[in-house]
Design brief:
49% of the residues lie in helices and 16% in strands. The chain is α/β, with parallel strands linked by helices and 348 residues long. It folds into two domains: 3-92, Winged helix-like DNA-binding domain superfamily/Winged helix DNA-binding domain (Arc Repressor Mutant, subunit A, Orthogonal Bundle); 105-347, Vaccinia Virus protein VP39 (Rossmann fold), CATH 3.40.50.150. It is globular, with a radius of gyration of 22 Å.
Length: 348
């Protein structure tokens, strides 16, 4: 027994347990509007925060102390401040780095623990629609800031000729659209184009149509219940998969359907979690997050469907390339990347 190694690991374990407990407090602060109430980055007492939010002052003192002990806030003489940098991630939903909303995805993992126990002891399957409701709202809130910051300004311009088509008037399918965040963003940016979002989860389609109506793009962005292998119509200029292909039971079948549905000069935009091509390359903070989430979400969903390929969230570019080559695509390349995403282009 290496005593020093044991102590190092115990320190890591305690740190991780503290982070997990703090994340529950983060979810609490997001739901109660505590971070938003401190978004001005001014020092405030628990009593003053209680007046602003209608919450219990004694519990707020404990909550604020946990934030300070974690480095999320500053403290001084019984007062607390949410620094501007932390406010960008925790309080300001229009910020490109806003992350607090996505904590609900982590909450869903705990809600769904018993379902994963059953999946582990069974065939491995847990369908997307069987997750706790906070999974769906959390997923939208987790991905939307990145799409807002990057999709129109950074990702689409890296695709061959796509922006010109969208400006002129293109036909676009957003497959696995969820609540439609990516679809609505594109519809707002390109009013001459028509967008159709497809998802096999009916409640998400209902929410997506509401989002399009609220955003004023309901006439050019519609949402329809359909799977990735049977969505209707053809002659698409662009077919998009945002953070969803690896969740599918038969991604090769989905890519084949896209191949048939595209125009001859059409393009597939594939946005996937950032990953290298092997475990060693993915032993990073981002890889840890995505592997852990994939254990509960992505891989069980794939295993619940036909074929059940089980790519997982850390499939990597080489494995994704093989999927599209098997489906008949002749061109596949990495268009760009972020610390959280690979942005890939496939063409006939």
């Amino acid at each position: 027994m290496d005593e020093a190694k044991l102590q190092d690991f115990m320190g890591k374990l305690v740190n991780d347990m503290g982070a997990a407990a703090l994340l529950a407090n983060l979810i609490l602060g997001d739901e109660l509007g505590l971070y938003r109430a401190m978004a001005d980055s001014q020092f405030i007492t628990p009593e003053q925060l209680a007046e602003k939010t209608g919450c219990n002052a004694r519990l707020l003192r404990e909550w604020l102390s946990a934030q300070a002990a974690s480095g999320y806030m500053e403290h001084q003489g019984g007062r607390f401040r949410l620094p501007e940098e932390q406010a960008m991630a925790l309080a300001i939903e229009d910020s490109p780095v806003y992350a607090a909303g996505g904590a609900s995805v982590i909450a869903a993992l705990y809600h769904d623990k018993d379902k994963l126990v059953a999946a582990m002891r069974g065939d491995g399957g847990l369908p997307w629609g069987d997750h706790h409701p906070c999974m769906f709202s959390g997923t939208e809130r987790f991905f939307r800031p990145g799409y807002r910051a990057n999709l129109v300004s950074q990702w689409l311009p890296t695709l061959t000729g796509v922006v010109d088509k969208l400006k002129a008037g293109a036909k676009v399918a957003d497959v696995g659209c969820g609540h439609g965040a990516s679809t609505v963003i594109m519809a707002q940016a390109f009013p001459a184009s028509r967008f159709i979002g497809y998802d096999y989860h009916a409640p998400s389609i209902t929410v997506a149509n509401q989002r399009a109506s609220e955003a004023g793009v309901g006439e050019r962005a519609q949402f329809v219940k359909a799977s990735a292998k049977d969505f209707p119509d053809h002659d698409y200029d662009l077919i998009c998969y945002f953070d969803c292909l690896h969740d599918m039971g038969d991604p090769v079948g989905a890519a084949r359907h896209a191949f048939k549905a595209l125009k001859a000069d059409g393009t597939v935009l594939l946005v996937e979690p950032y990953a290298g091509d092997n475990l060693d390359a993915n032993c990073t903070p981002v890889g840890r997050l995505f592997y852990a989430a994939s254990t509960f979400i992505c891989t069980p969903n794939s295993l619940s469907q036909e074929v059940g390929l089980g790519l997982g969230a850390q499939a990597g570019e080489a494995r994704l390339r093989a999927v599209f080559e098997e489906a008949g695509f002749r061109s596949f390349r990495r268009a760009t990347q972020t610390p959280f995403n690979l942005i890939l282009e496939a063409r006939k």
